[in-house]
Amino acid sequence: MQKFFPLLMKPMASAAWPTILRVVLGILLIGHGGAKLFNGLDKFIAVVALRGWPMAELQAFLAVFIEFAGGILLTVGLFTRITSFAVIVQFFIIPFIWWAQMPFLESADKPFLIMVLALYVFFMGPGRISVDWYLFDESRIRKDCPDATATTAALSSADDAYHGDDGSADG
Q1: Taking the model in full, what pTM does it have?
Q2: pLDDT band at 143 (very low <50, low <70, confident <90, very high)
Q3: By the 8 A CB rule, do 36 and 64 touch?
Q4: 10 Å Cβ neighbour count for 144?
Q5: CB burial of residue 128 (10 Å; 0-12, 13-18, 19+)
């Protein structure tokens, strides 16, 4: 019986979850923003204006942009933490300010769950299958280019020799 306890206690496929949840969040956002964008942004602007929000056109555009473009960025994993932070802010506003009278009723539960997913993505990062990991992960760069550390050290020492200790050029 004890040999089955690790199955209950150890994480399963833990390296894959940041990627899986980031892609799921991105797809949800594309659907959420795409519905507003392709069903007529004017309708959404009118709803925002009817609620009495200032600069309704700008706020509606920003909301749709964060949802649709942010969803695309999250799906491919580009600028993941910046995008997920914007999603966190927006989807905090929806259940707690937009639906302030009834934050946990039917209309506000999906935005709240999207905010929770965005929090997970923000803190866990994009995962290995992402453009961010390909472009910005230093450990991957060092593995792909073993001479990168030596090259960086050589450039640094050459720069120090050129500038001297006080930072001025010797020439």
Answers
A1: 0.74
A2: low
A3: yes
A4: 10
A5: middle
Q: Which residue has the tokens 């905090």?
A: 92
Distances (CA, A) of 145 to 133, 142, 159: 15, 5, 21
CB within 8 Å of 17: residues ≥ 6 apart:
124, 127
For residues 8-39, one letter each, b for 16 or more C-beta atoms within 10 angstroms of the residue's C-beta and e for the rest, the string is eeeeeeeeeebbebbbebbebbbebbeebbee
Sign for the pseudo-dihedral over CA of 143, 145, 150, 151: negative
Q: What is the pLDDT of residues 6-54, one digit of tens each?
A: 767 777 778 899 999 999 999 999 999 999 999 989 999 998 899 888 9
